[in-house]
Each structure stands twice: as C-alpha cells, then as structure tokens.
Write a structure and sequence with these properties.
This protein is an alpha+beta fold. It has one domain: Aspartate Aminotransferase, domain 1, CATH 3.90.1150. The protein has 5 helices and 6 strands. Strands 1-2-3-4-6-5 form a 6-stranded antiparallel sheet. A hairpin with a 2-residue loop joins strand 2 and strand 3. Helix 1 crosses helix 4. The chain is globular and about 45 Å long.
Length: 129
Amino acid sequence: MASWEDVSRIALALPETTEGTSHGQRAWKVKTKGFVWERPLRRGDLEALGDAAPDGPVLGVRVADVGVKAALIADNPDVYFTTPHFDGYPAVLVRLDRIGVTELAELAEEAWLTRAPKRLAQGFLADRD
C-alpha cells in the first residue's frame, strides 16, 4: 500500500511540480494549482462520517469533475470517500493505506493533468507517446 513517500515521489516526478504546504499540511502543486494534498479529517468530517471515518492517513486528490469523483467512490468505497465539506467540489479523499502505488500514480497523474497549464499537459502527453 502507498505511503507519503510514494505520494511525494510520484507527484514530484510530474513536470513543474513543487511540494509545499497548504493549511499546514503537505501539498503538491503544478505551477500554483494544487492537485494532491494531505487532508487529515477534521471534527466536522468525523461527525459526518461517524463509524465509517478512517483512522489512517488521508490524501485529497483533485479530479476532473464530480462525475469522476462519484465513479471512483462507487467503484471502490474501501479506498475512496468524501465528506460534506467536499460536496459539489471535484475532489475525492483517499485512504492512503488502502491504495496501491500503481493506482496512486495513475490517480496523481490524472489530477496533475486537470490542473496543469494546457501546453504543459499537452507536452507531457506527447512525450509519453
């Protein structure tokens, strides 16, 4: 299963990504736009989730739209979830200790593509082919 070291290594391998902090937590950005971040659960999250609240590390990940978010949660609710704080927002929460490194890499890359400037994303995709 994935670790914070995996998140950092994967994110920083993507072009023009930097690691910093946001709201006191680790966050990875392309240019100035965050795409993955450490997201500990807050009191409101814990109250909303009740017994379903995970006790391990939680990663926030930007997704293309709320449809993608819903699909991830529906396909694998043991890994992906959300809280009312993220209602209507294109981001999903990930139980880091339940996602494989390969799946994490794919998720981070897709998140990066949603936030990267168009030319940078196009160049990245062209270089992969």
